[in-house]
């Protein structure tokens, strides 16, 4: 339930960010801050120190906190533009695509024409200072979303709005507490899901963009196959902006995650997107494929050590995922049993999506095993990376399935008897398999998508 402006509880996480920012510049109350009854809490001009933060956390405020705060220095549109230019210059593939699409002039026009709302600049400033990886990710998503919109033939105005939708899609992360080690318990996963609604509300309250920008932020983790979050909307109810920003969010996350292990260019991310083929509109996939096909980047061949590690992972993961896949078919037929409970419906949809992915990949028959053995014996690094990508993304889908089952079992609508035991047993199987699988990777943390946004 959305709170009214007279029942605004300040975010503990955002207050902590403001206190940290106050160590480097003045962060002050721009106006008197009062509680929902009009009682003065903080006078105009007072700095947001740890003590002030503690006071504010104990009250509901008449106005949203970010609307009552001022930073002495915030990112300007030109500052955002400079950071984006630095990002594009740092990556040869980004530079090549940017030049190939002659995107420099449109980028300057959309970023330098109209000043961004001060509340939004405040959030981007906090993110740039205290969550630089998230800030860089947001810059990429803004640029790539506008590029996809341009390739799809959208108007210049809609491409501009797409840029800001991508740039601002994760500002809600500043208002939630995140796991320090990247590993999320089910209750932390539920909290993480709220960042899309928080960010959407902030943008909506600024009233400076068309409604599809806020809607796109709210929907950037929704998927056509209804395996996303937070509401698992039917595909026909999803807007274009959320789908485009969600695709760029996934694109950057996949590449950045793999770059912890080896150099993975955007062009090789197509292997990952095949796992998510039913998650996004076909027109978006087509635009991404056309864009990435223009990349002339040639990935280096895997070295002997890296190739050996990838081969070992794929060989180890294949039997684990086959074991996990066996109970999927019964789950997909239990829709009526769950009485349309949201988590229950997500379980059914996810199990169907995973089954279809396994079928598309041919991972349920001997032909796949023969193909995989051929890849193992050949020198085709691209095919080996693709097989590794498929297995990794399937692990992530199984992880999300386990969270959904746990969410159902903890709810008031949880099934009882034999079905309950079957679901508990399956969650144990999933956890056991994941415990065996994640250590096969150099970094044992979960994908960044889950700790933003992932998926």
Any chance you could write out the topology, listing elements then pairs?
Elements: H1 12-21, E1 27-29, E2 33-34, E3 40-42, H2 50-57, E4 69-71, H3 77-89, H4 92-100, H5 104-112, H6 118-130, H7 132-151, H8 156-168, H9 186-193, H10 195-206, H11 211-219, H12 240-258, H13 270-273, H14 282-293, H15 304-325, H16 328-332, H17 342-361, H18 366-377, H19 381-409, H20 417-437
Antiparallel strand pairs: 1-4, 2-3
Account of the protein in words:
This protein has 455 residues and is mainly alpha-helical. The protein has helices spanning 12-21, 50-57, 77-89, 92-100, 104-112, 118-130, 132-151, 156-168, 186-193, 195-206, 211-219, 240-258, 270-273, 282-293, 304-325, 328-332, 342-361, 366-377, 381-409, 417-437, and strands spanning 27-29, 33-34, 40-42, 69-71. The strands form two sheets. The protein has a two-stranded antiparallel ribbon. Strands 2-3 form a two-stranded antiparallel sheet. Strand 2 and strand 3 (40-42) form a beta hairpin. The protein is globular.
Number of helices: 20
Q: List low-confidence stretches.
A: 1-6, 258-263, 443-455
Strand order of the largest sheet: 1-4
Which overall shape is indicated by the principal axes computed on the Cα atoms? globular
The major β-sheet equals:
2 strands, antiparallel
Please, what is the average pLDDT? 81
Strand content: under 5%
SS-derived structural category? mainly alpha
* Rg calc: 23 Å
Summarize this structure as a short list of keywords or feature phrases.
455 residues, mainly alpha, two-stranded antiparallel sheet, two-stranded antiparallel ribbon, disordered N terminus
């Amino acid at each position: 339930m959305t709170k009214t402006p007279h029942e605004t509880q300040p975010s503990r996480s955002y207050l902590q960010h403001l206190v940290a920012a106050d160590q480097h510049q003045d962060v002050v109350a721009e106006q008197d801050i009062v509680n929902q009854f009009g009682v003065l809490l903080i006078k105009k001009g007072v700095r947001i120190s740890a003590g002030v933060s503690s006071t504010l956390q104990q009250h509901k405020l008449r106005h949203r906190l970010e609307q009552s705060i001022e930073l002495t220095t915030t990112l300007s549109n030109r500052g955002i533009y400079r950071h984006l230019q630095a990002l594009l210059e740092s990556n040869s593939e980004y530079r090549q695509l940017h030049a190939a699409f002659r995107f420099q002039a449109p980028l300057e026009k959309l970023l330098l024409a109209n000043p961004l709302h001060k509340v939004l600049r405040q959030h981007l400033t906090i993110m740039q200072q205290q969550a630089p990886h998230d800030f860089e990710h947001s810059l990429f998503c803004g640029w790539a979303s506008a590029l996809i919109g341009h390739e799809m033939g959208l108007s210049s105005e809609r491409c501009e709005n797409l840029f800001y939708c991508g740039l601002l899609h994760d500002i809600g992360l500043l208002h939630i507490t995140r796991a320090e080690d990247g590993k999320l318990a089910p209750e932390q996963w539920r909290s993480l899901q709220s960042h899309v609604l928080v960010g959407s509300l902030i943008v909506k309250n600024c009233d400076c963009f068309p409604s599809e920008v806020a809607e796109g932020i709210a929907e950037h983790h929704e998927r056509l196959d209804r395996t996303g979050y937070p509401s698992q909307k039917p595909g026909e109810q999803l807007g274009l902006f959320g789908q485009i920003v969600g695709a760029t969010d996934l694109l950057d996350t996949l590449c950045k995650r793999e770059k912890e292990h080896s150099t993975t260019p955007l062009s090789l991310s197509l292997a990952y997107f095949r796992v998510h083929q039913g998650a996004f509109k076909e027109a978006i996939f087509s635009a991404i494929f056309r864009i990435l096909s223009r990349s002339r980047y040639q990935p280096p061949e895997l070295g002997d050590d890296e190739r050996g590690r990838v081969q070992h992972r794929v060989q180890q993961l294949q039997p684990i995922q086959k074991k996990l896949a066996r109970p999927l078919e019964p789950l997909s037929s239990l829709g009526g049993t769950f009485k349309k409970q949201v988590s229950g419906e997500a379980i059914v949809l996810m199990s169907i999506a995973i089954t279809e992915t396994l079928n598309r990949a041919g991972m349920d028959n001997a032909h796949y095993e023969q193909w995989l053995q051929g890849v193992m014996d050949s020198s085709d690094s691209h095919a080996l990376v693709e097989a590794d990508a498929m297995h990794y993304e399937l692990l992530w889908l199984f992880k999300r399935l386990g969270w959904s089952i746990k969410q159902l079992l903890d709810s008031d609508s949880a099934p009882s008897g034999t079905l309950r035991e079957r679901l508990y047993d399956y969650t144990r199987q999933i956890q056991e398999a994941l415990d065996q699988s994640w250590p096969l990777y150099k970094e044992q943390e979960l994908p960044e998508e889950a700790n933003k946004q992932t998926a």
